[in-house]
Amino acid sequence: MNQTTPAHLQGPRLRASAPTNAAYHTLSVRRLTPILGAEIDGVDLSQPLSDEQFQEVGRALADHQVIFFRDQHPTPEQHLAFGQRFGHLHRHPAAPHAPGLPDLMIIQADEHSPRANGEVWHSDVSCDAEPPMGSILYIHTCPPEGGDTLFASMYAAYDALSERMKRYLNGLTAVHDGEHVYRGTYANLGVQDKPTYPRSVHPVVRTHPVTGKQALYVNRGFTTQIAGIPADESDAMLRYLFEHMENPLFQCRFRWQAHSVAFWDNRCVQHRAMWDYWPNLRSGFRVTVKGDAPFYTPQTEIMTA
Question: Is 124 a catalytic residue?
Answer without folding.
Answer: yes
